[in-house]
Amino acid sequence: MRIIESHKRLRLFSGNANIALATEVAEYLDIKLGNAFVGKFNNDEIQICIEESVRGSDAFIIQPTCAPVSDNIMELLILIDALKRASARTITAVVPYYAYGRQDRKSRGREPISAKLMANLLTTAGATRVVTIDLHAPQIQGFFDIPMDNLPGVPVLGDYILTKNLSDIVVVSPDLGGVSRAREMADRLQTSIAIIEKRRPQPGVAEVMNIIGDVKGKTAVIVDDMVDTAGSLTEGAKILTEYGAKEIYACCTHPVLSYPAVERLANSTFTEIVVTNTLPIPPEKQLPNLKVLSVASLIGEAVIRIFGELSISKLFDN
């Protein structure tokens, strides 16, 4: 077992959102997933039963809040409540994909700030800590009154790109808001960045305007936190080709892949689309040039450090 401090009791549980990832994390930690029933009553309400003692334990729940979003959120909240009422000492919600992360502010009158509501729900349910990967808006960490760790996806993606031994790389941000993430990737690959300048005439619709930086004759690596409908990615690939990029890769942490993402990506010019397994990808959405990387070791190391009361930031020291 990787856990050295045997006087503590680690329990790892999972909802139904991504059991495969939770199983990988359990294998990395050399422990078994906790025994819990996560299903539904006949009236479609969520049914949870923790089927082992967790009194005094440090419990971790792995549950991305992906589609079906409402069901997965409710599973997570009720799991937290069940563990709290079963006297778990601490409850860490590991939410690899944080739903409503793009609703972090009011862009017009009478809109909710749903990312803040999510933080309130997790805290009120009884979570003592939250861990996520690649928040769309890092400032969401400030919505929490409990510790919140936002693990970067760039190290996983960047390390894979390094294994490709590509030449003349330029890292491309798909918009002005993603420059920090692109700079982090560029630093990891020791190269320069370019920025796609665009505007959105309406939600989900991106209109590319210009490219800031030199991409001619280079291998372009577009980096983003997620690929949703793939509109931004595919439009970005088109303009990069027009500006003379010789080859284009996409690196996105979360493969949301809402309609019509698969069709768009299938008809795109990407050499490879690199994502992680923060969300499960059904067979019908798996493309020949889609590379899925595991974040199990990243989550596993974070669990070890939280459980052992060690620094998480040390994980990412170069």
What can you see in these coordinates?
With 318 residues, the protein is α/β, with parallel strands linked by helices. Helix content is 29%, strand content 27%. It is built from eight helices and 14 strands. The protein has helices at 19-29, 69-85, 114-125, 154-163, 179-189, 231-242, 261-266, 296-307, and strands at residues 10-14, 36-40, 46-50, 58-62, 90-95, 129-133, 148-151, 169-173, 192-202, 205-212, 219-227, 247-255, 272-276, 290-293. The strands form three sheets. A seven-stranded mixed beta sheet has the order 10-9-8-11-12-13-14, with helices on both faces. A hairpin with a 5-residue loop joins strand 2 (36-40) and strand 3. The two termini are 27 Å apart. The model is unreliable at 3-7 (pLDDT under 50).
Overall residue-averaged pLDDT value = 94
- What summary fits the major beta sheet? 7 strands, mixed
Percentage of β-strand residues: 25-35%
| Contiguous runs where pLDDT drops below 50 for at least 5 residues | 3-7
The topology string of helices and strands comes to: EHEEEHEHEEHEHEEEHEHEEH
Measure the end-to-end span: 27 Å
Shape: globular
Work out the number of β strands: 14
Global structural class: alpha/beta
Helix content estimate: 25-40%
Q: Number of helical segments? A: 8
Whole-number radius of gyration? 20 Å
Query: Strand order within the widest sheet?
Result: 10-9-8-11-12-13-14
List the helices and strands and how they pair.
Blueprint lengths: L9 E5 L4 H11 L6 E5 L5 E5 L7 E5 L6 H17 L4 E6 L18 H12 L3 E5 L14 E4 L2 H10 L5 E5 L5 H11 L2 E11 L2 E8 L6 E9 L3 H12 L4 E9 L5 H6 L5 E5 L13 E4 L2 H12 L11
Parallel strand pairs: 1-4, 4-5, 5-6, 6-7, 8-9, 8-11, 11-12, 12-13, 13-14
Antiparallel strand pairs: 2-3, 9-10
